[in-house]
Structure formats: structure tokens, C-alpha cells
Amino acid sequence: xxxxxxxxxxxxxxxxxxxxxxxxxxxxxxxxxxxxxxxxxxxxxxxxxxxxxxxxxxxxxxxxxxxxxxxxxxxxxxxxxxxxxxxxxxxxxxxxxxxxxxxxxxxxxxxxxxxxxxxxxxxxxxxxxxxxxxxxxxxxxxxxxxxxxxxxxxxxxxxxxxxxxxxxxxxxxxxxxxxxxxxxxxxxxxxxxxxxxxxxxxxxxxxxxxxxxxxxxxxxxxxxxxxxxxxxxxxxxxxxxxxxxxxxxxxxxxxxxxxxxxxxxxxxxxxxxxxxxxxxxxxxxxxxxxxxxxxxxxxxxxxxxxxxxxxxxxxxxxxxxxxxxxxxxxxxxxxxxxxxxxxxxxxxxxxxxxxx
Amino acid sequence: xxxxxxxxxxxxxxxxxxxxxxxxxxxxxxxxxxxxxxxxxxxxxxxxxxxxxxxxxxxxxxxxxxxxxxxxxxxxxxxxxxxxxxxxxxxxxxxxxxxxxxxxxxxxxxxxxxxxxxxxxxxxxxxxxxxxxxxxxxxxxxxxxxxxxxxxxxxxxxxxxxxxxxxxxxxxxxxxxxxxxxxxxxxxx
Lengths: 356, 189
What we know:
The structure holds two protein chains of two kinds.
Chain A: H1 16-21, H2 40-59, E1 72-77, H3 83-94, E2 98-103, H4 115-124, E3 129-134, H5 139-146, E4 151-157, H6 163-181, H7 185-188, E5 197-201, H8 208-219, E6 223-227, E7 242-245, H9 248-251, E8 257-260, H10 276-283, H11 287-292, E9 298-300, H12 313-316, H13 323-342, H14 345-350
Parallel strand pairs in A: 1-2, 1-3, 3-4, 5-6, 5-8, 6-7, 8-9
Helix pairs in contact in A: 2-13, 3-13, 6-8, 6-13
Chain B: H1 2-7, E1 15-24, H2 25-42, E2 49-54, H3 57-72, E3 79-82, E4 112-120, H4 124-134, E5 141-149, E6 161-165, E7 173-177, E8 180-187
Parallel strand pairs in B: 2-3, 2-4, 4-5, 5-6
Antiparallel strand pairs in B: 1-8, 7-8
């Protein structure tokens, strides 16, 4: 509250020099979150900054704020999910939004209703945000073209992207780095990512998390290295800001972050490797390989983990494996995303934003 | 200093231009000393008293009041900070983003909370702060200390400790900084 109530929105600035040159609306995200590419480095930094404030809310004895009272968030999951759906719904509830959870298995979708009609039906009920997971890449983008006022959040589409997971991973990595340095995570900004070596291991081909992570980490200035069986690498890596390592053991010692991916059996990954044992021998994070990791290396996994395949069971319980922390942080990060998309809604409209 | 510069910069690029200085830095210090003593007098000491500075302008004032109190009183007074961005009633009317940390060092149940802010204007920030406080426990009482009360209340809220009552026009701005208190206008660039 540096001035008066009249100037509350001064708070939207943390960098006065930027305010000199630009109008101060820092909500660089929206109207939808379909891809990490929508955010850019500034948008990611903003999400991480706001998520830090929500992480504090989560530590309170009553972890709930009235921020999005009266808003309705619908989760529309055409693919099974435990953590992402729970995480979004918890986030919306902690912001005091109302949550509608459409169970596709028991909805009219089973009667043959098209995606478009389903979306139009729920939008007609006055929904402010649709959190969508779909097995088809690009489904959220299509839905975003159909909706008139609702915000669309991509909660994972086919092989394409899973932007909030990448944001959670960045948030978690920064948190661990900050603890190592003995400082507050927010004080690091996103400069801590510059030059960080991020190794993404496994089924990159079928992984939407990998695509979002590549975009997020590289936007923040990290160096991204992919490793995995060549049959599980994307058909073309042209234009990807990555290098590919043929040998996992060679790159492990220099990695600051190791992002393990799940072998996606439901997308037919099994057919791309001779056997699970062979996959584990070549690309799994075994006890032996953990020994090669640097002392401060952080291991992330978007979950669900398949112990014994991409990660050895003992390894999964090591403190450097931050999977549980990723789940915890998931709520704060998704609160930030919902808040940034929904919170400044009419303000942006009033100021002539492009949202129509 | 970033904080002060920020308070001079309006959302759409306007700039605070002071027209008159109302209180000097020394006046502000005297007002803080008086308010600190009033807090102790009113509550018969500092038992169960906790100061909570509102982000961002109230925080430094809260710490300064605590400093004064700790010199004169035996009890040490805890100081917290509170960002009310998530509790404002104008979310959606303008972009409201959390700027700074909320840190309440003690459970507020049964405590006497003294909210500290720099300027009291419409009262909406204080309303949001009251909401926010209730999430940290049921305080025995909540009091309000402000450096400047500039009028134009939109809610039934009044301060308990005031540095200076300052009649203003609605379109004027009041700035509280380490150099004192000035009144001014916002000028488009």
C-alpha cells in the first residue's frame, strides 16, 4: 500500500524502470493458456512470482482466499488423470471459485455428443474457465476458438503440451536452488535458470511434458539436453532448442536437473522399445546412475512414476527426487495460473485489451 | 528505493508530481513516536500486542513503530506483514497482483492486532486486511494506525492512531516516503 487506495494497482509493478516505458499491466498471460509458448520468459516469470505468494497461502492454517469468489471453473477431462485434475480443482477451491467437474465417462459425451457441443453447453452455463485434458493434440486450441468468454487452460493434450506441469517443474527447481543458496525463491527471479543444464530423459516422442519443459526451460535460458532411445525421440527435432545425447551415462555428471519421463504405454511406447528391461538398462535412473549425478542435481518426474522402469524404486525415495514436492507445488502454480487468467479479467477488457 | 519509485508511477504510465510537502522526515518520526506511545498507553503496555504492516507502504512504518516501542517498553512487540491483494473487492476491476510477502509471525488468536498503513483513503484496503487477518486466527481486537488520514471513506472504517489528518481532494495523491509526506497530482506523461 505504498500510496493510497487509489493507486493500488501500483502493485502491479515490481520494476519501476519497466513502468517508465510501458503501461503497467503486467498480466502478460491470457486469455488462454494453451502452450508455454504463449507465456514467454516474462509470462513464466510472472506465474512463478505469483505462485510464490500462493505457496504462502498454502502454508496457512486456513489455506483459502476469497480471490475468485463467484467464478466458475470447469474441469473437462477426456483422459484419465489423478494429480492434474485434483491439483486444478484444489487450486480453484482454494481461490474460492466454484468447481464443476465433468466426468466424461458419465456425461453426454458417451452418447455421442461432440466436443464442440459439450463445450458450448458448459459455456452456456456461465463458466469462466475450462480446464481441458484431451487425447488429441490441439484440442484445447480448437476449444479456445469456440468459446466466447471462457478462458481455456490446457491440462495436457495428446503428445503436444502440458504447460502447467512445466511451470510446476520450473517452480520446484527454483525452490530447491533457493534452498541450496539459503535465499527466498522469489529473490532469484528467473535468472537462476540461465545456463542451467536440464537433461530430459526417456520417452520424449510421446511426452507432452517434455515439449512444454523444452519450451519453458529454454525460454528461461537453460540448456536442454534430450536423452532416450532413438525410437522414442521425435521424428524431427528441427527448430528445437536442444541437443541430443546418445549416451545417458556421459551426460549425467554435468546435469543440474534431470527430468525423467514416463514410458507411455497407453500411447504405444511399448512397441518402440525391445523390452522394458532393456529400456531400464539403457535409460532408467538406476542406483548406479544416481552415483554419477552431481551432488546438487535435482531429479523431477511429472508422475505417475513407474518404479522399476524409468526409475529404480530405491532411487525414487532419495531426497534429490522431488516428485512429492512437485505435487505440492502444483496447487500453488495452478492457483497462480487461474488467478492470472481470471483475476484481471474485466480490468483488461476495460483497458481495451484484445480479448473480445 | 525501488519501493518509493514505484509509488510514483501510476498503472498507465502517469507520474506523481508533488505540489507541497506536508510533513518533513522529522515530522514523520515525531508522529511515529507519538503513535507508538499511544499504542502502549491505549493497551496498557504491549502484552499480546502485534503490529502488522500492510504491504507495501505500511511495512516500514510498522517496523519503525516497533523500534520505538522496543526502546521504551519492556516487552518485545512482534511485527508481521500482510499483502491483501487476494482479498480486495476490486479484483476484476483492475489488475491486482501480489507484490510482497505476507508473514504473520504469531497465531493471532487472542492478540491485539495493530494494523499499520501509510495512507487511509477509501478504507477498502483496510476492509480487505480485516478479512485477511481473520484467516490467521481470531484476534481479541484489531486497531488501525495510519500516517495520513486523507478522508473520502467509502466504508465505515476509522483509524485509532493517526499521524496527520490531511484534507484532500479526491483526485489528489498523497505520498509517504522516508523523506516525509507530500501531496501532489498525477500527471500523464
